[in-house]
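user:
I keep going back and forth on a fold encoding question. Separate attempts, laid side by side, tell us more than any discussion would. Would you put together a sequence-and-structure record for a protein of your own picking? Write it directly below this note and I will take it from there.

assistant:
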Amino acid sequence: MSPITSPSSARSGAIPYGRTARRLEWPLLPPMVRSMIARRLGSRVVSAESAGTGFTPGFASVLTCEDGSRHFVKAASRKAQRTFAEAYSEEARKLRSLPPGLPVPRLLWSHEDDLWVVLEVEYVDATHPARPWRPAELDTCLDTLEVLARRLTPPPMPLATFADDFAECLTGWDHLRRVAPHHPHLDEAERLAGRYVEATAGSTLVHTDARDDNLLLAGGRALLCDWNWPVVGAAWIDTVALLISAHGDGVDCDAVLAERPLTREVDPEDVDAFLALMAGFFFERRDQPTPNSSPYLRAHQSWYAEATWSWLSWRRGWERPASVT
């Protein structure tokens, strides 16, 4: 791993990662749902610690039972939280399809009815990687992405392609052209994004949400969580996606790309096409209204927009980008 030698002096301290979620709490679940969960756990729930990470309002808590056992349970209402209930249902389906032995918390059980989706994922006594990134922790997380890419080529389930699933991201550059027509290098960045289909083609399961708050460090390895929307695409996509935040934290990520097995032989133009696609997406998303259920979502997306643009600008030799704030 290369040392932190900052081509971008960006820092993410303005966003309280670890406290970004505004979630449904245990006492607010309907009594029938709480009773069903307790039956599945085999013991009465005596305390609940809500997960502070993430940007969704679905219930996600570590439940401690009367017998001393601990459990990580998610739940969402099909009526009040339809989008998140569908995501949890999809996560349960995807976790069932993954082969055993992966660095992934296991699905223990799930329950779905007309009103609720509930699932228990293996509880792991772990921590999230620190931000700004520490080199050893970043290495451990990148190691996990390499294991997953190797084991999940080809994917063990039918999946949409990255190209199809992320086609809507191209509208980001139309949006930026409307709101900031004099944005530097807009035409070149839009052309780069336009070749993302060929750049991201591949036969590997891509998680699509490999971020520090979806990774758990435990026992000398990293576990990747939140398997809602994987796709099939190039084996290197998750690695580059994770490194966007590392670049924003000051890591020399081009040196990392040159060292890592998944990225050292990738065409630089392909990486740039992916970064251009994601920069446009984040530029557009940060300008949307802030949802009440996720007060830090737009700040998070704004930071990622600047971090992605900073890295792309650095790689293309454009004028040195301003630091991310």
